[in-house]
Amino acid sequence: MVSPAQEKRRGQGFEGHWALVWRKFLRHRLGVLGGIIVLLAYVVAAIPDFLAPVTLEAYNPAYAYAPPQQVHLGVSTEDGWQFRPHVNAYKTVVDYNSGRRIFTADPESIIDIGFFVVGEPYKLFGFIPAARHLFGPVEVGQPFYIFGADRLGRDILSRTIYGARISMTIGLLGVAASLVLGILIGGVSGLFGGVVDNVIQRLIEFVQSVPAIPLWIGLAAAIPRDIPPLQVYFFITIILSVLGWTSLARVVRGRFLAMRNEDFVKAARLDGCGPVRIIFRHMLPSFLSHIIATVSLAIPGMILAETALSYLGIGLRTPIVSWGVLLQEAQNVRTIASAPWLLLPGVAVVIAVLALNFLGDGLRDAADPYAD
């Protein structure tokens, strides 16, 4: 007797499981779009020094809270329209009532924009000296703020690009640590059952019952404020992992309970395999596609958690630059009213989270290629 799934597989030829998963994923348009955006986001996180117009250290107090500049593709000359990408320079007037500068565009003074321009020097990947930037002002030092500037005259676009390096990788590392904990603890719970299963499930229920924000605050408060930024990054990753492994452990435990009496598991036990080898060598590969989908859906939660922690001031702190740290500038209502462009790093968070969710939905649907 041939099952419907086997009959469907015969109709699809002799392709392997992963080939069928890939084919079904390609039919999920939002999933493919999300995958492209996620890939681009991690490219940005890998080489922000090259992609950003200026470095993190660049600032100019004379352009504090400068508004975004509009990019123009050309100029009108006596010979007609000429392709010449540029932005208009600023004209400043001091408002003596508020003590702030008021910036307006000066159409008579333009700042040319180029690609692969020579700008401020940096070290690509931390050790390769370079000075080329993907785009920026042709003349080094000209004001170039297409996303506006913050209170110190720092470029919001460049800092948002640099923020991807922390915000995107902390979600990836946090999920990786949660993946190890979830698979190991959930696998032991489902494989052994009985008393071991009861103890682990009560532990999971206890962790899930603790309010997340107070637990974040308590764990973040335990981090000394004078430790190096790299250690802060490490501790925040651990905090996110401690809170994120329980849901995956529940999924793994349910699947292992269903499979532990299968013939291949019994054969592995009779062959003398230990619990760790049974979990990672025999049981885990049977639903690896489901785990990949679950992980891709967990990364957005990690990114949002880091953003919330940093925004509340209990996560990453300056001089580390992440999207949550950048949004700290937008905590004041008066500041937002006068400089709404400070919320633009939040747009990057929304795009990244939506893309990861689209990718996760596509992977989840493709995880079972035999389902309609």
Structural summary, described in words:
The chain has helices spanning 4-11, 17-26, 29-46, 48-51, 156-192, 194-209, 212-221, 229-244, 246-259, 263-270, 275-283, 288-311, 323-327, 333-338, 344-366; strands at residues 71-77, 80-95, 100-124, 128-137. The protein is elongated. It starts with a helix and ends in a 6-residue tail after the last helix. Mean pLDDT is 82; it is low at 1-7 and 9-14. The protein is of the alpha+beta class and 372 residues long. The chain has a four-stranded antiparallel beta sheet.
Distance from N terminus to C terminus (CA atoms, Å) equals: 21 Å
Estimated share of beta-strand residues = 15-25%
Order of helices and strands: HHHHEEEEHHHHHHHHHHH
| Largest pleated sheet | 4 strands, antiparallel
Structural class category? alpha+beta
Primary descriptors:
alpha+beta, four-stranded antiparallel beta sheet
Q: Briefly, what is this?
A:
The chain has helices at 4-11, 17-26, 29-46, 48-51, 156-192, 194-209, 212-221, 229-244, 246-259, 263-270, 275-283, 288-311, 323-327, 333-338, 344-366; strands spanning 71-77, 80-95, 100-124, 128-137. The chain is α+β, with helices and mostly antiparallel strands.
